[in-house]
Amino acid sequence: MTEVERAPQRAQHTIVVPSSIPMVSLLGSGDELVRVVEASYPDVDVHVRGNEITLTGGSDDISEVERTIDEMVAVLRTGQGLSPEAVERTVAMLQARTAERPAEVLTANILSNRGRTIRAKTLNQKRYVDAIDKHTIVFGIGPAGTGKTYLAVAKAVQALQAKQVTRILLTRPAVEAGERLGFLPGTLSEKIDPYLRPLYDALHDMMDPASIPRLMTEGTIEVAPLAYMRGRTLNDAFVILDEAQNTSPEQMKMFLTRLGFGSKVVVTGDVTQIDLPSGTASGLRVVEGILSDLDDVHFCRLNSHDVVRHRLVSQIVDAYAKFDTGQYDTRTGPQHQTPRGRERPRSSGRRK
Prior knowledge:
CATH architecture of the largest domain: 3-Layer(aba) Sandwich
């Protein structure tokens, strides 16, 4: 006798949204936020009527959607708005079963300036920021657009305003990114300024631009090339080394040994974008093997999921990662691994 398989029973659950939460804030303009939820859980039907949201689908999926909506409501209770990207990150954190609540990650303020609040936008960014609070030396390693430098500068400004340090030092190696710029005109300061411009840009986002020249003249803020760090002892300072993948092992050692009393150091870099001459080892590549056993040194890794620029940047990072690991051939396109470990082009056919 053949058993008849029954289709899984669909459950239904209704969520009543508190009257204090405007539905347009929860659903988004043109329902863009609820569409993100629907796309993330395609097996759940979402029906909205007034301040009630009815969910129909498998019980497990309904539970996930309910948790997502709960987190969205929790964010809105703080007065912070929601974006499609924030909802996507909320879903990703819930699906990853992280210990941290998405609402706590997305609403933790680092710095407020001129009506703008700077916050971590992903779980790894939040862990990076927390590590800066807990450790003396923190390495933030990850691809472009993950907020490594921006968040480090925000923490530096926060520490200065809280009088935890008396000065901020921002430095990076003056290495050309594959281009020959030749002899730049102007004074020494004008010659090195193009290399340090990203650090200036971050400062201008976080402080009153009119106060920055005064603070730099007083020495409270210093932006300088890495070569200027040699021979110094940096006390009561928040020091950031940016683009550290372009340091040699000797430069990295020189920089880290500048650490003085009451100081904090953040080193940021992307080991996939090394601009050193061929044959020169990157100090950022080798430092983890040297310092990983030290208690007060922390290595924080960010990835393409932490990119907070245009969503295409995350896809570009992943595409280059596949290329670097041999999964892509510039002549034949993406590659498969054969059972014997050799690559072969994908079979022809319609692209999905």
